[in-house]
Amino acid sequence: MIGFPSIGKATACAMIAVALVCSPNVQARGQVETVDQLRYPPLPEVRIPEPTRVVLDNGMVILFLEDHELPIVHLSARIRTGSRLEPADKAGLAGLTGDVMRSGGTTTLTGDQLDDYLEGKAAHIETGIGIASGSAMMSCLREDFSEVLEVFGKVLQHPRFDPEKLTIAKHQAMAGIARQNDNPQRIADREFTKLVYGPDSAYARVATYDTINNIVRQDLVDWHATYFHPQRIILGLVGDFETEQALQLVRQVFGTWPRGPAPDDPEVPYQTATSPGVYFAEKSDMTQAKIVIGHLGMIRKHPDYYAVVVLNQILSGSFGSRLFSNVRSQKGLAYDVHGGIGFGWEVPEVAHFSMSTKLETTQAGIDALMNEVRKIMETDPPAEEEVNRAKASLLNSFVFSVDSPGKVLDQLLTHAYFGYPSDWLTIFRAGIERTTVQQVREAGRTHLHPEQFVTLVVGPREGTAPALARYETVTELDIAIPDPSS
Known about the structure:
- Helices cover 42% and strands 17% of the residues.
- By secondary structure, the chain is of the alpha/beta class.
- It folds into two domains: 52-254, CATH 3.30.830.10; 277-476, CATH 3.30.830.10.
- The strands form three sheets. A six-stranded mixed beta sheet has the order 1-2-6-3-5-4, sandwiched between helices. A six-stranded mixed beta sheet has the order 10-12-8-13-7-14, with helices on both faces. The chain has a two-stranded parallel ribbon with strand order 9-11.
- The chain is globular and about 65 Å long.
């Protein structure tokens, strides 16, 4: 055997590779001199699995997607509810209901007994309620599916709402209130949301000590009775099961649950136009300033959605994006800088541009963010190369959003909940592909309005004063945490 007794195998392989490359007999076909000469084959077709959709007699919608790679079953639910529906004097009620549904157990299992049961099965059950929807999830081994599903059904249908667990959850909520000004990012997010949606909007509402104190167990019981009904629930199953058998199990657990009244939730108002101006929130223990500028964004159903997705990619989608390159790398004003036009499913998200910067560069930071907005709108609109690069990045990364049945089903549940087409994932890719340079340029001019921008600065008074002194009017926000009334 011929070997290399005095060198390692890795070194020998490297020597062979170098010799082959340098050999005059080896043709250098396909080599390029610059990156612009690189050519890529067309993207392969992405196959998105389609679930089986069934509607029970009581109105519950169920999506089944088999995945036999592992002996595990996952179940997710979307419940038509949300904190935007809670009364202002009981802000925090929806979140507490979602927490105590799980922690408080069922009418047949205490919360602690439920914990022990799930631990013994290596299974999980969780519930929660956000701004626009409620959620519940379950995961277990295939062999335990029927048994754990029955317990999951009791959590959804017959929660105990244990008073002791409610007390614990209220204490945790109050601890969160006490810490709500610890993090500058949380302050900026909270106050900017109020400025954009309106201080009285449910989309910007914040729980206080008083609103948490106002909540009693009966409120949780009433909330559950109002919003937890089969025709308000979309259920999704993915994992190692046979669809027909799984359907029978689901029918056994949920089929006799009464349909309940038809959904008739009121529209939740928010201001559609901001009050432009400069706002300041004092946080004296900061060594930097947090800056956020922007206004209301858009919804995904808008015809310009795909053009805005591409625009956002150009602005802040990668290390080569405009905000990163210009504000961070070239000007050195921020380590973290990002922004774009946000889009919600049924209510507009915010369009915002934000950064943290040294106190002495607060003014330069505001100017840099505003300058990038005006450039992409007017003086330096997206070039064809930028648009093509952004589209390629979005299309190349799209596969990672659908590379498992679980990811696909989770998105399909969201689409079904908010009334989007079942083929929205396919539509999305096609929409990005057909987006033109002109559409991206027009999206920037149409959906960015600097004259309507709210500018928010969070930081110490002394350090930010020079930057704010140039504005005729600066509104100071009161971010003090109100003491409980009693």
